[in-house]
Amino acid sequence: MNGAEAFIGTLKACGVDVCFANPGTSEMQLVAAIDREPGMRAILGLFEGVVTGAADGYGRMADKPAVTLLHLGPGLGNGLANLHNARRAATPMINMVGDHATYHLHHDAPLTSDVISVAKPMSDWVRVSRSERDLAQAGAEAFCIAQSYPGKIATVIVPADHAWTEGSAVLEPQPLPAAPRSPDSVIDTAAEALKAGTGDKCLFLGGRALREETLVLAGRIAAATGARLVCETFPARLQRGAGRVPVEKLPYFGEQAEAFLKPFGTIVFCGTEPPVSFFAYPDKPSWLSPAGANLVRLASQREDTYAALSALAEALEAPAEPMGIQERAIIPAEPGKLSPKAIGAILSELIPEDTIVSDESATAGLAVYGLTAGAQRHDWLTLTGGAIGQGMPLAVGAAVACPHRKVIALQADGSGMYTNQALWTMAREELDVTTIVLNNGSYAILNIELSRVGVQNPGPKALSMLDLTRPEINWCQISEGMGVPAMRAATSEEFRNAMLEALGTRGPHLIEAIL
Amino acid sequence: MNGAEAFIGTLKACGVDVCFANPGTSEMQLVAAIDREPGMRAILGLFEGVVTGAADGYGRMADKPAVTLLHLGPGLGNGLANLHNARRAATPMINMVGDHATYHLHHDAPLTSDVISVAKPMSDWVRVSRSERDLAQAGAEAFCIAQSYPGKIATVIVPADHAWTEGSAVLEPQPLPAAPRSPDSVIDTAAEALKAGTGDKCLFLGGRALREETLVLAGRIAAATGARLVCETFPARLQRGAGRVPVEKLPYFGEQAEAFLKPFGTIVFCGTEPPVSFFAYPDKPSWLSPAGANLVRLASQREDTYAALSALAEALEAPAEPMGIQERAIIPAEPGKLSPKAIGAILSELIPEDTIVSDESATAGLAVYGLTAGAQRHDWLTLTGGAIGQGMPLAVGAAVACPHRKVIALQADGSGMYTNQALWTMAREELDVTTIVLNNGSYAILNIELSRVGVQNPGPKALSMLDLTRPEINWCQISEGMGVPAMRAATSEEFRNAMLEALGTRGPHLIEAIL
Q1: Are the beta carbons of A453 and B385 separated by less than 8 Å?
Q2: CA B350 to each of CA B239, B418, B495, B509: distance values in angstroms, whole numbers, following the listed order
Q3: Which domains does chain B have, with CATH numbers?
Q4: Could you write out the DSSP letters of every residue in A457-478?
Q5: With an 8 Å Cβ cutoff, is A167 touching chain B?
Q6: At what angle do helices A184-196 and A212-225 cross, to 10 degrees?
């Protein structure tokens, strides 16, 4: 068997069974190897940002890696933005990136580039195979790295001659590393802080701490200590909705976040670090936690949050029941002209149990999040790294990981354009994704940020760089051009009817919400 | 004045007057500075690959740099593929990439990444500003680097606090470096080789040697020596058509290229290096020049090709007239079902003088190139680096550089999807670009390459990864969704009528050619 077959076979033996792919000539042997491995599903993306974003969505929902197939340095470059988001989300993911045959590299053919250097900034681990036999070994190692709790980005660079040379073999999976645990002393410190602390207390949660069962532990700790439960602004995956332990979300804008945190004298962090301002602004602080507050790091993103909160609940002799459970709450929608509030209200009523929401709604969707707190239980995935163009690809991957769940992509118009090709993959794979494009005709967030960084009275040229109305983008046409049926909604009534239709029929839909 | 204003002012003083932009929050001060500089045109792209591809097209046609505006590491990442192509084309280009304020970086906010590392693989030169005053200095240096003959990719990373801090000033342009010249000994060696060589002789041209006036020199040398004029497979800009000195183009596939070069006993290279196979294939050579041939490097891509060929023509006492001049030749088109040949024939008849063709037509367009040899004189721009998604962005930039010339983007369907957002910029800027999408419903080149790398009997999963028909992409809908009027042509007659309409009306058009 050749190196490509051994590599793909090893990944399959480890449990990897989905490949998001955008191959080129140098990856044809990998394509052939995937073709021959019946347990490996291949999903084509027409742009690499779709591929890496889909692998991110898959990894967040499956808690195991998909593998991507990318073409040389430029193909990897096209995928970097969503790799950045995935790395920030600590998603398990394996990338296989083709490169020229080893003996061809020194000729500096047109597509030659320094693939390792392209890979490093957005990967946790990069490995170039050394031979056709070593390629399988690299695959086995990549799986272990990718599955390091909670997940890492492992990138394997595959020279074409290693892929096509015979004489390799499938390897057994290696033992997986256990998630590191917080030491007892840290548990004690956190318990002490929550018991004895002055001022309001906060249990600040992120990463894997935002899963349903871990949130129950947090809710029990809240019941024992009166701590408020707060989560990071951009969680990778937050399990929320009716029947779950609710958490408050830290606001996006630094001033609001600082004011939000101000009352707290004690903050215990679990699964994330103390929050900082997303951007710097003249005369505004980067660090958001109050000066003088007692900040305790119970568990980092890479330490076992369930174990840490279990131990903490035990140390605090927390009651069996969490402090609060979110009740089902349907918000009535204002009739007439459609608004983000009305969208949120209608979703609070309509989304079915275990819906997955991929939220890249930027400004237009701020209201939607708040109003869906009492929707049926669901998973909420956000833009962890701020690199826009994630929303629809993430929905693709989530739908592949969870074929029996409804997926909703809440998509701002400006960022949606970056990876609009994701619609084609939704159509090809008949994914049960409803994309809601929040069409406000602008990079609205940048209009806000322009004044926040101190630009007064911007002129027409500046404003035109934030404007998407000249020409207006017709998302229904783009969507149908890629095979996804589309509807337009300008009123609450139209939006509600469109949602009913989309949720009532399996397969992809797009609703262009005119705001 | 703040650092951003001094930076933009310095670029303007150097002669840079076009900015292709996709800004984010960290670039708002640069947006404001562009706004206040009346001599700087700002052109928004809805994806960074459009931005860098447009700057490439602009630089190839204007022979001076445009500046791009990109958002942090992920925004730059999205632009890397077309930066790779631009670097291979030796296009003059300046990138300004925002970064977090210097004091914000250590907080590792979500969008933080190693911007320098992202920039390096596809830039010739990377510079981080050190202060608000140094930012202007970085701009002046970047211009000099970008204008190093024939052009380089200069990337300046702009921390947000350097942009917003007051106390900087516009700097004078620095003296530009002269293009390096081939030494006399090399001219003599080349003259000797072309006079005395055994076997057929070839003058192999690339880079700036493919401009009209330099080709006249090459044609005179051909007249003096009987050398055949051959050009690289993927020229950055080839001036061709009726009235110009014709050159033969080296075939793409390695076997054909090797056979093409086999007769030559002497090859003199000017503006490019000895060609190598685009990819490696099992049991096929990378090096294409015949063993034992006398290979002489008259001038590299970075040496003055006009000076080198002038000196060579003089040394050879070449006649005043070139060996041949391309005659006007209109090829009759077969009526009925549309084919690449028919498209080439119709273009040979219809394209007006000084049309610019951006060719990313891949397999579907091979015939078009050959059949347009006798069209009215025009410029032909190709995919220099093999990173697909260049065609339409390149056309955007060429149209901005040359507003009074017709631009045609010959666009394969698969690669067109990568940067389809370019259509929106064509509409917004009312660019006189006609995009011809060659819709064959597949990555046809990969179907060929699959067998060339030794994959026999590919199964349905492999073939599906090269197929674009499930679902079919409706380019007319996508185009109109972004504001570019579109027509569909399935026969020669329909295509001819569509071309007449597109060429007869200023502004953007798209013709979906069904093949």
Answers
A1: no
A2: 17, 29, 11, 16
A3: 3-164 (3.40.50.970), 184-315 (3.40.50.1220), 340-514 (3.40.50.970)
A4: S--HHHHHTTB--TTPP-HHHH
A5: no
A6: 50
Q: Which residue in A31, A41, A278 has the most chain B C-beta atoms within 10 A of its own C-beta, making it the best mutation to test that interface?
A: A31
Name the pTM for this structure. Answer: 0.98
Select the residue of A28, A44, A47 nearest B453 (Cβ to Cβ): A28
Count Cβ atoms within 10 A of the Cβ of residue A310 and give its class: 0-12 exposed, 13-18 middle, 19 or more buried. middle
With CB atoms and an 8 Å threshold, state whether A286 touches B103.
yes
Say if residues B79 and B115 touch (Cβ distance below 8 Å): no
> Mean pLDDT score of chain A, rounded to an integer?
96
CB within 8 Å: B34 and A481? no
In 3D space, the residue among B413, B389, B412, B409 whose CA is nearest the CA of residue B508 turns out to be B409
A73, B80: Cβ pair inside 8 Å?
A: yes
Compare CB distances from B417 to A386, A421, A460 and report the shortest one's residue. Answer: A421
Residues B453, A29: C-beta atoms closer than 8 Å: yes
Identify from B41, B84, B157, B431 which residue to disrupt to test chain A contact, counting A C-beta atoms within 10 A and taking the largest count. B84
What one-character DSSP code corresponds to residue A43? E
pLDDT digits (tens, 9 = 90+) for B42-99: 999 999 999 999 999 999 999 999 999 999 999 999 999 999 999 999 999 999 999 9
Q: What are phi and psi of B182, to 5 degrees?
A: -65, 135
State whether residue B158 is helix, strand or coil: strand
Q: What ipTM was assigned to the predicted interfaces of this complex?
A: 0.97
Distance CA A202, CA A200 (A): 7
Q: List, edge to edge, every strand of the sheet that includes A509-514.
A: A238-240, A378-382, A355-360, A407-412, A433-439, A509-514, A486-489
- Return the residue matching tokens 């069409």: A439
Q: Are B374 and B406 in contact (CB under 8 A)?
A: no
Please tell me which of the candidates A81, A161, A452 has its beta carbon nearest to residue B77: A81
B471 with A114: Cβ contact below 8 A: no
Number of Cβ pairs < 8 A linking chain A and chain B:
313
B274: closest CA among B304, B222, B230? Answer: B230
CB contact under 8 A, B103 and A474: no
For residue B265, CA distances in Å to B185, B224, B257 come to 21, 17, 15
Both tokens assigned to B238: 């080839």
